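Please, structure for the following, as tokens.
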Amino acid sequence: MLHDRVLVDVDAAASERRSGGGILIPATVQMGRKLSWAKVVAAGPNVRAVETGDRVLFDPEERAEVELHSRTYVLLRERDIHAVASEGDSDGGTGLYL
């Protein structure tokens, strides 16, 4: 990875969601702008806020897809990441740091 680029693996099952009544809403339905979670696979040398293995929140419209070894990943700039999920919620907060 070069510069401030981050390679993430998006969980395909996470893109589907359920309504309050339990109805499954497929990922293909357009319902406004929704951010997505992904796991960081690799990060460039100038990336400061995330590390490999972190879960990050990003806008799916601000991405570039790349296929490596028959698997599709998403390539982002570090500035396109909105939040990083921490492992534990020890301070009673949301578990996110921005």
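The chain is about 0% helix and 40% strand. The two ends are 22 Å apart (CA to CA).
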